[in-house]
């Protein structure tokens, strides 16, 4: 049974402007393992897409759970990739649910959708 659906979209320029100033947004949004992967990218464009995609995924997840970011922090939600490269999501305190995640990028935006099943 579907328990929730969430979607979020973010402008890549917004992420670009933020990381031009500092890495504070990345450190706030990304978990330690996500930060390791983020630091691995030499290409600045790929870093922006990665951070924007994770930001959108975590916002979409919080919307699907009905909590929003605030009650649930970015650090409680982790987005990793399986062996084929597909993203998956793990949420601390919600291990009983199955999360389905899709992230996409265009030239200007990153979008993510999360569906939760119990």
From TrEMBL:
InterPro entries tied to this protein: 4-PPantetheinyl_Trfase_dom, 4-PPantetheinyl_Trfase_dom_sf, ACPS, Ppantetheine-prot_Trfase_dom
SUPFAM superfamilies: 4'-phosphopantetheinyl transferase (SSF56214)
Subcellular location: Cytoplasm
Pfam families assigned to the protein according to its UniProt record, in alphabetical order: ACPS (PF01648)
Positions of the 4'-phosphopantetheinyl transferase domain: 4-113
EC number, UniProt record: 2.7.8.7
EC class of the enzyme, as a word: transferase
Record's catalysed reaction(s): apo-[ACP] + CoA = holo-[ACP] + adenosine 3',5'-bisphosphate + H(+)
Role summary: Transfers the 4'-phosphopantetheine moiety from coenzyme A to a Ser of acyl-carrier-protein.
Protein's name in the database: Holo-[acyl-carrier-protein] synthase
Source organism (scientific name): Oceanobacillus luteolus
């Amino acid at each position: 049974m579907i328990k929730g659906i969430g979607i979020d979209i973010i402008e890549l320029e917004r992420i670009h402007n933020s990381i031009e100033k500092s890495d504070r947004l990345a450190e706030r949004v990304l978990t330690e393992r996500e930060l390791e992967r983020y630091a691995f990218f030499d290409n600045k464009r790929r870093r922006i897409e990665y951070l924007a995609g994770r930001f959108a995924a975590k916002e979409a997840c919080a919307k699907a759970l009905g909590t929003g970011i605030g009650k649930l922090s970015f650090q409680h939600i982790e987005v990793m990739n399986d062996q084929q490269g597909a993203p998956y999501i793990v949420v601390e305190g919600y291990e009983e649910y199955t999360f389905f995640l899709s992230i996409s990028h265009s030239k200007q935006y990153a979008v993510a959708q999360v569906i939760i099943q119990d």
